[in-house]
Amino acid sequence: MVQFNIAIAVLSMFLLLAKATLYLLPIYLPVISAFISIVEVAIYAVSLKNQSTPDHSYPAHIISGLPWYLSKGCSYADPANYGFCMQARAVFGVTCVMIALFSCYFIWSVVSMWPTAAERAERKAHKQSDIELKRVNEYSPDNELSREEIWERNRQMFLNLPKTPNTPGFGGRGGGMSPMTPRTVAFTQLNGGAGPSQGMGMPSTRQQLRDRFGGGGDGRVPDAR
């Protein structure tokens, strides 16, 4: 009996975690709740029956009714067995409470199987919305096109999308060119290409100083001293 009580306690914890998971999903239907609750009522009823059977452990003192620790209390127990007597009575009381609790769960689950007026109205509204959506899809222009025609139409729409504009402010035709990163400039000059100041029409620093201070034709900048 002790092993059976431990087993149903572990099973109850597992079913509690399973019910919490089903409730959060949410797929914890009333029929599932009723089935789990009736199973829990059954196993705890078996435990209660085993705890309330007559005590035949001592052939010389056979008790036909409830065990002595339930019918007469723990006042007759030895001091060494008083704690065990209280534990047995506590287990019996907890079993009764669990049977009452799961019985309430079962009754509430059975009652919840019948929808209320608000639930009926909500289901009717969802059903009407699904019917209207189905009618709209039936009159869709895509139903008159084949799969190849739909694919070609989508391809043309993709090709006609606006292209990404170039970065402005770098000159060039149309007022825009792709920006040049420092790495691009370095590799271009190493390969013998024109740098950004030569290739994009940007004046060099020496040209700017010559235009500002009026340097000679030899390109030398006058001494600032």
Automatic annotation (TrEMBL):
Residues 192-225 are annotated as: Disordered. Keywords: Membrane, Transmembrane, Transmembrane helix. The chain crosses the membrane at residues 30-48, 90-114. This is Uncharacterized protein. It comes from Friedmanniomyces endolithicus.
